[in-house]
Amino acid sequence: PAAATLGMFGSLLQAETIATPYLQSSPKCIYLMNHGATSAVCWRPSLDAKSGFCDHGVVRLRQRCATCRVVALDSEWTWHRTANNGVALLQLGFWPGGDVFCIRLRRPGANRGELPQRPPKSIRVLFERAARGEVAVVGFALHEDRRRLAEHGLQLQRSGAMDLQPWCSNRAQRELGMQISLKDAAFKFLGEDLDKGPRMSDWEGPLTHAQLRYAALDAWTALRLFGRRGSQTKNGDTGPVEKISSTNSSTKNGRFG
Known about the structure:
Distance between the termini: 31 Å
Structural class: alpha/beta
Number of strands: 9
């Protein structure tokens, strides 16, 4: 299945180059989903000073998971939580679409010994589609995400997830072993400065707009970089893309930039 997903990378290049001009610096809408994905809060950063409950968020998440062709993911966890506690938040940026969904995978107020939450059905459907080669899963510096998401039953290696960090590092002409951070990649390839201030926040309690923007942009930036790589590959510059496997070493090189 991983090979099938990687094999479809070339067939997605046209989609990527079409999508790239329409991927603005920020998603049109950021959704915060509760830990069961049964309710949603919606925030449109360019239009709304405040966020509010959204009746359509749950349905849209299901639709995106069932129909998307590319999904970029990232995750957040509170700094003192060990890997066996999983993640607090899973961020998914979809193409087609112009939004990012931030799904809680740890119940607010959960104690240290509580087992990681099982993801909602829509997320499981998405990963099943990826395992069948129906959707490309991409991200940036995914090694620690892989370890933690496995605690929730989400297997990045089975989904054939592609880590864009090696390609970005190669294009930036970094020395071997010196991986570029997402912040530096965003500046170099997209000309934008990512705010990494909230990275050490408490991700299990109430979230501020600054935290939501930070979390959403990590996934959204990976999606845009995937589109950028697609346009470069179309011109003959393939470069390395790392397939996530269960034997990859755990590293946070460039994880927070």
